[in-house]
Design a protein that fits this description.
Number of strands: 24
CATH class: Alpha Beta
CATH superfamily: Ribonuclease Inhibitor
Number of domains: 1
Distance between the termini: 93 Å
Helix content: under 10%
Number of helices: 1
Strand order of the largest sheet: 1-3-5-7-9-11-13-15-17-19-21-23
Structural class: mainly beta
Length: 329
């Protein structure tokens, strides 16, 4: 079958190893092995298929081993789906050679090591998922080169360091999910330029500093998750501009001060679960209308008032400036 161009074995119950002879089908343009029970590694001979523009192995839960470095030779690929297997080892730096890629999915594997800087070369990408692995190290600033991206997920890894401000270059993004990592530092104020975002979730990291008021520019957001961090200061009144929000999750931070009346604008928040403010240090003495609104929109099992920590554990900002006495020089 040397002239075979399309091989689609998806949605069967094929098992056993993928034959190394697959590498002899050098005229293949599309190879789909998804939704089967193949076992063992992806053969290195796959790298011989240099005419491929579409390779899919997703949802083979017993495919394992390292990803072949030879995947970097498949420079005609536009579609590479490897998610929901058990691949291990690092992401090959050679994937940065695949500059025609539109879609790259590596999520739900057992990948380790850092995200290669070379992925920043994939400027044709619109869809990139690496969530639910064991990736470590920082988010490469080079991902900010992928200005065609509409979807980026890095959640449930062990990523560290700060969120690169360069991600704000991804102004076409609609979904950005970074939750459940070990990211630190401030939320970049530049995120306020990502006006096409409908979902932004950076819950459960170690982020600090203020909630940027610039997030109030993201008026297409339907969900905003900032909980489980070390965010300080007050809730910006500008969040009241986000009138399309269905969920606003701010619990388990160190937020202090008065809640803005502008929260009353968020009428699309889901009842009983759309607003989460507990486990902060917020002032619970609010206007009756705001109190009723928060109660309606908050989780039924958590009293947002009694779950506040009391006195703010820090001065949110200087509360006074000592007057000069004019004594001495």
């Amino acid at each position: 079958m040397p002239n075979l161009a399309y091989l689609d074995l998806a949605n069967n119950s094929f098992g056993g190893n993928i034959p190394t002879l697959i590498g002899d089908l050098t005229n293949l343009i599309q190879l789909n092995l998804s939704y089967n029970q193949f076992t063992g590694p992806l053969p290195t001979e796959t790298g011989n298929l240099t005419n491929l523009n579409d390779l899919r192995t997703k949802y083979n839960p017993q495919l394992d081993g390292d990803l072949p470095t030879q995947l970097g030779d498949l420079t005609n690929l536009t579609w590479l789906e490897l998610e929901n297997c058990q691949f291990t080892g690092s992401i090959p730096t050679g994937l940065g050679n695949l500059t025609s890629l539109i879609r790259l999915t590596l999520n739900n594997n057992q990948l380790t090591g850092s995200i290669p800087d070379q992925l920043g070369n994939l400027t044709s990408l619109t869809y990139l998922t690496m969530n639910n692995n064991q990736l470590t190290g920082p988010i490469p600033p080079q991902l900010g080169n992928l200005t065609g991206l509409t979807y980026l997920t890095l959640y449930v890894n062990q990523l560290t360091g700060s969120i690169p401000p360069s991600l704000s270059n991804l102004t076409g993004l609609t979904q950005l999910y970074l939750y459940n990592n070990n990211l630190s530092g401030a939320i970049p104020a530049q995120f306020g330029t990502m006006i096409n975002l409908t979902g932004l979730d950076i819950n459960d990291n170690q982020l600090s500093g203020l909630i940027p008021k610039e997030l109030g520019n993201l008026t297409n957001l339907t969900s905003l998750g900032l909980s489980g961090n070390n965010l300080r200061g007050s809730v910006p009144s500008e969040l009241g501009n986000l009138t399309n929000l269905n969920s606003l999750i701010l619990h388990s931070n160190q937020l202090c001060g008065d809640l803005p009346m502008s929260l009353l604008n968020l009428t699309q928040l889901n009842d009983s679960q759309g607003l989460s403010l507990h486990n902060n240090y917020l002032n619970t003495d609010v206007a009756p209308a705001l109190d009723s609104f928060i109660t309606l929109k908050s989780s039924w099992y958590t009293d947002w008032k009694t779950s506040q920590g009391g006195k703010c554990p820090y001065f949110p900002w200087p509360l006074f400036i000592p007057a000069t006495t004019g004594m001495g020089n």
